[in-house]
Amino acid sequence: MSAPEPSNAGEAVAPEAGLAERIRQLPEGTILKGVFFGLVALSVAMVGFDLKALVDERRADPFVNPAREPVTMPRPAPGDQVRPYLPQTRPVSPDRDGAPRRQPPRSFEEAEPVRFRALNDETISIEGTIVPGSAGEFERFLQDNDFSAGTEVLLHSPGGSVADAMSMARQIREHEFNTRIAAEGYCASSCPLVFASGVERHAGKKAWIGVHQIYAMKGADALGSLSDGFDHAQRVSAEAQALLIDFGVDPRVWIHAMETPKNQLYLFTLEELADYRLVTDAPDTDASETAAARQ
Asked: pTM of the predicted model, to two decimals?
């Protein structure tokens, strides 16, 4: 009679038993330490990803890393009207073939404090960033020059201090001036409030006119593209809407401002400029745009 073959049952569980035995032989707390260090490594990785996202966001923030040269971007179209805000330069339209312009249409100093110039007896040029104190400077400029009703104010500004923009707007309406934004002209942020003050308001077909939320300017302590908090922002927005109504402009203009983040710009289409009564006639023809730009 042959001897029975040994059973394989013990061999089948041996690896599992060996693993369990090894785990039991580990020093006390080893597993907990492994879990702890794993969680630490995961946390470090997550912080790294968040930090990278923050750095990328700050690089894209126009206030942290503003563009210095004109930026080519597509023209606004219904439903596609939000573009990056450019506080220190201006957008330009692509050429007909879609390629960027080799040179901007003319030289502007968007990043510099606003300048007031008399181009002739009937035309005032306002170019640059509206800063706290610009309204007082504009008042002195008007006192030093004798402009009659109907004088045209040619605007090109990335905006700035809302309080000063509103004060300048009231002065323009008080003097019964007209306003214009030439071809490829840029009127953003608080600048449309100034534009809206003209008795007659003209804009080139390729003018860039847009709004966004008010924001706090570094080193500023007055109203304007600035706010101390939510209540302050509400008061400024209410005042801006009331001013637009006084000028005969649809206050929906400023609703778009309140809906658009500060680092973006809601650009108005030609149809909206007319519907909101931001312009008082049809957009300028190419010929009249060119003539205004030359001035």
From this structure: 0.71
